[in-house]
Amino acid sequence: MPHADSSNFNAGQSKAEVYSQLLEQAEGLLTGQRNWPAQPFRQLSQPLLTLSSNLSNVASLLWHAYASLPAPSSAVNWAGFYIRDDKFPALALPVSSPPLPDTPGAGGVTISTTYSSPEDQVLLLGPFQGKPACQQIRFGKGVCGTAAANQETAVVPDVHAFPGHIACDADSRSEIVVPILVKGETVAIIDIDCTEAAGFDDEDKKYLEQLAVLLAESCDW
């Protein structure tokens, strides 16, 4: 089946049927493709990254799946991912600074991404469908950062009532955020926004948590 056909969701299906199809199609697209991003490579001494193919494909599946459902699911206005910053290969690679001027024999300093505390961890914008979004969110901040820090799904019926909500899009009224956990750590989150209040329920939580497990197991984080 052509890759594009995997995003065809027939109208009139129940939410459970659409999510089941999404999981099946996601598993098919992820099979044999363990990269969340492709690993870095060097060309002409410059580090280059290819597109984060797995999460890009799944973001597309989510977008088309919600569009096929009746309201409030059809009112989803953002679907995508935020990834912990040290999981971006270029940021995770140790970087050596050049020697200081006028200091013969002094070596450079090697810098790598480490955290002295969980509060220092940062989520960076990953593949998504929707309007432009906030580029970085600190763990513990907003709905995304809170779900990442707590390692628990956050279902928020009214984002305006959520303490410390980060308003990337003023049209968003409700949100669900599901952490992707690997070896007991949050490596990324699934983030879905909706322009209607109470846009998500326990059924969304159930299937998106299954998707998070699939992504955790199918990608080399």
From TrEMBL:
Regions that span the bilayer: none
InterPro entries per UniProt: FRMsr_CS (IPR000614), GAF (IPR003018), GAF-like_dom_sf (IPR029016), Phosphatase_reg/MetRdx (IPR051330)
Coiled-coil portions: none
Any one GO MF annotation of this record: L-methionine-(R)-S-oxide reductase activity
Domain GAF residue range list: 117-216
GO CC terms of this entry: cytosol
Assigned protein family: Belongs to the free Met sulfoxide reductase family.
Protein's name according to its UniProt entry: Free methionine-R-sulfoxide reductase
Native organism: Penicillium alfredii
Taxonomic lineage: Eukaryota, Fungi, Dikarya, Ascomycota, Pezizomycotina
